[in-house]
Design a protein that fits this description.
homodimer; alpha+beta; 7-stranded mixed β-sheet; DNA-binding; WH_DNA-bd_sf (chains A, B); NUDIX hydrolase (chains A, B); NUDIX_hydrolase_dom (chains A, B); hydrolase activity (chains A, B); NUDIX_hydrolase-like_dom_sf (chains A, B)
Chain lengths: ~230, ~230
Amino acid sequence: MSRNVDHCYAYPHPAVTTDVVVFTIRDERLQTLLIRRVGPPFEGCWALPGGFLDIDEDLDRCAARELREETGVADLYLEQLCTFGAVDRDPRERVISVAYFALAPAARLQLKAGDDAADAAWFPFHALPPLAFDHDRIIHTAHERLVSKLDYSTIAFQFLPETFTLSELQRIYEILVDAPIDKRNFRKWALAIQQVEETGELRRHGSHRPARVYRLTDRNRITYLK
Amino acid sequence: MSRNVDHCYAYPHPAVTTDVVVFTIRDERLQTLLIRRVGPPFEGCWALPGGFLDIDEDLDRCAARELREETGVADLYLEQLCTFGAVDRDPRERVISVAYFALAPAARLQLKAGDDAADAAWFPFHALPPLAFDHDRIIHTAHERLVSKLDYSTIAFQFLPETFTLSELQRIYEILVDAPIDKRNFRKWALAIQQVEETGELRRHGSHRPARVYRLTDRNRITYLK
DNA sequence: TAACGATAGTGTATCGGTTACACTTTCGCA
DNA sequence: TGCGAAAGTGTAACCGATACACTATCGTTA
């Protein structure tokens, strides 16, 4: 593909990256995964996991790969969010970033530092540190998308572990919308949409009545309601 | 920015393009704007208007510019849709395409052939010719987005000319959802959402009672309902 | 071992927005 | 002046969403 190199002179190509906003719920809060940058620009600053697209790599794969390399996180729900391409968003060169957002249950996320990143850590969404590039905007766009999808999809079910109780599911929704939800109405809804089924087991968790345990009927698909 | 050229050898950059799906309603049908390609690949084939991103140009501006250059169409509602980056979507080199979709009233769209395109023409959405690249997929993604936004936004109002009657507005919705709509319910809804105001004029159009003429309260914004 | 604290689990009545539905008005034209 | 054709108008039924309070079952402790 020598033609590509020729074009660099006639028509310079921008760099293309993917950046991933990973959300999870842990410690009763919505949290976001960030990595600390090791090199310039924004050295030492927190940023989204992500990086340059390989020339023979799909966009989706690039997002999954960078996430895995930098944080050890794999196999989660990944959806393309939006593409950011302001001319001055990277001081080095022109960079087009295809942003993704990802959701996963807290338990599945085993962090480990990769080669590109000195460190990876979770931050509460409502207490983010200063971020590199335009990553603050990207995260807030992802959050808007997440919240708006709560209304008409089962996207929030991606935060659930393999098995769960209805109270745990309700708590996820309460954290996301930041408001209490009526227990009876919530259960009526959760059982009506046919996305969960009983495992038959009970879960004991303290000195009170044990809860029925459920699982998702289809872990790998989010459903659009109405 | 000589660094960019250096990178072409170490880390080859993909080309970045924008492609625009323009919808309008004319002749009682949803139609899409296509251009006929003058050079290879897909020479003579119909394709979406669009082209390569200038290195110092915003993505949005690129989409608007390519549209203007190739079709003479300007000043319409433009929204980023999705980014397509399959490895083999362009046989020449790796190309990442940031797709946009645009809506406009039929009257404002004066077509003229530009330099990149031999010809530009409208096609009914339900009778599209074979298309270059993955443009068929892009158009159908755009259509899905359009239809889903009908439910919760005033996006369809972008098809309206400066002034219009409620029957004309209703007709737009009927064409888009491809089903008849109850007149009284539609008018109740249209007047309740506070997006239109009477001009005070009447429009005579045939041998029957003249219709009240309306305009949008805010042409430049689409509103999200509920 | 009985009382208590804590979470699980359950049904009904009301409200509000959505839908279904038919006739009168006003024009142009024959 | 009567006829065809689109403009314009209100009410009742329906249905999904909401508000709301008590019993069940466990572990712990007095």
